[in-house]
Amino acid sequence: MSPIITVDPDKLRQFGPAEDATFCLVTNPEFKDDIVIAKSGQYRDYKVVPMHRGERFEDLLATIPESAHIFAVSPATFFESPTGDTLGPRRKLLAMACNSTPTTLDLIAHFLAVMENTSPAEQDGFSDTFFELLEEADHLVYSDSKRGTKATLQHLQDGLVWNQQAGAVGWGEQQIVPAGEISVLPIDITEFEEDLRLPLEGEIVIRGYPILHSGTPSFSRNDQARIYRELTALHDNAVIARVEAGEIVDIRADTPGATPAVNMLNAMFEVDSRYRIVWEMGHALNTSLDLVLGNHAMNEVYGGTSGCLHWGLGLTPYTQFHLDIIAPDTTVSTDTGTIVLGVEGGYASDKIAEDL
Questions:
Q1: Is it the case that residue 99 has pLDDT exceeding 60?
Q2: pLDDT of residue 2
Q3: Are 134 and 335 a contacting pair, CB within 8 Å?
Q4: Which has the least CB within 10 A, 24, 226, 282, 312?
Q5: Per-residue pLDDT tens for 60-84?
Q6: DSSP state letter for 21
Q7: What span, in angstroms and rounded, lies between the C-alpha atoms of 196 and 104?
């Protein structure tokens, strides 16, 4: 029998006080008996809004009060974030990342608990310190002392776009949850131009936990699972990539065990050369999250104990998949040696949840 998941709005601290708003749970009809709302808080009303397969969230907003806290959980159909104007000035939106990879009710329950344990105040404090240190730095250094690699990012270059998906959510704002990421890209997070690059130079280490996201175009879950299986060699083995002007020009296996991942990455590069572009660098800071082994989108904000980097290749729907690779061995510091993310020498071990 499927578990019943109780969403307690009062525990979702990112929303802040109810302020006479309506709490709306948006989910797929097949989960209406599995995901329920605890109606013990201070909200004006509580409402469940069904989102059917193929339905657009923007089209559902007409059924949602203008003053609302909205929590979207849509594992059965793609959830596309609305524009700010469409969301409106008196709504707040939290959308669980649970369709780009297969997501069970057990996983939803696990990551809902992560959300409840996440402190928006702590994330806001971490983010403020992060950006203060970046303002004082000439450039950032991404190093892996276990393998002796280093790459530099000219983070102050004009045109870079920094996005904060962390901390409290204000009126008219939205957040992918669980929250906890500061990312940098060469253009707005929803756009892609293959001639743009991040100003990243040097060698990077890809070792950790891959996440292979699907998009809205036609794709096969079997193909997604097959590609992911080859990339799981990265759990215990490293790939070293040489990056020139933000593009991977060469990769090699640090140990023989990394060969399946090298072969799959090279296959992806051959099919679509845009996968060579280091399109996104994600600085994750959710320290309440334990990784769940498997291809799970909500692992993306894993922050260890002091933050954790992940590399992003490709961008759906422009490429067939978007590949994130959580990299606990990478330490991010300023040019003067001040650590801004991770720990010196990389993490000795990773926070892994028990199998669900």
A1: yes
A2: 55
A3: no
A4: 226
A5: 999 999 999 999 999 998 888 999 9
A6: P
A7: 36
Given a contact cutoff of 8 angstroms between Cβ atoms, the answer to whether 285 and 324 are in contact is no
Tell me whether residue 197 is exposed, middle or buried, using C-beta atoms within 10 angstroms of its C-beta: 0 to 12, 13 to 18, 19 or more: middle
Q: With bands split at pLDDT 50, 70 and 90, how would you rate the model's confidence at 40?
A: confident
Tokens of 299: 């692992």
Q: Which two tokens stand for residue 91?
A: 């709504």
Report which DSSP code applies to 81. Answer: P
Q: Give the alpha-carbon dihedral of 93, 209, 126, 315, to 10 degrees.
A: -50
Sheet with 91-96, side-by-side order of all strands: 45-50, 22-27, 68-73, 91-96, 174-177
DSSP 347: -
User: Under a CB-based contact definition with an 8 Å cutoff, are residues 101 and 119 in contact?
Assistant: no
Structure tokens at 264: 């799959």
Helix (H, G, I), strand (E, B) or coil at 31: helix
Measure CA 40 to chain center: 31
- Where b means 16+ CB within 10 Å and e means fewer, 125-148 reads ebbeebeebbeebeebbbbbeeee
pLDDT of residue 190: 82
Which helix (H) or strand (E) covers residue 184, if one does?
Answer: strand 181-185
> For the segment 229-245, what is each residue's pLDDT rounded down to a tens digit?
999 999 999 999 999 99
Give, in order, the Cα–Cα distances in Å from 83 to each of 79, 199, 270. Answer: 13, 29, 35
Q: How large is the average pLDDT for residues 1-26?
A: 90
The answer to whether the peptide bond before residue 260 is cis (omega within 30 degrees of 0) is: no
* Mean pLDDT value across the chain: 94
Q: Which two tokens stand for residue 289?
A: 């999250």
Nearby residues of 70 by Cβ (< 8 Å), 6 or more positions away: 24, 26, 64, 91, 92, 93, 94
Two tokens, residue 177 = 């949850």
Query: Binning pLDDT at 50, 70 and 90, where does residue 279 land?
Result: very high
Laid out side by side, the sheet with 308-313 consists of 161-165, 181-185, 278-284, 308-313, 321-327, 209-214
The one-letter amino acid code at 122 reads E
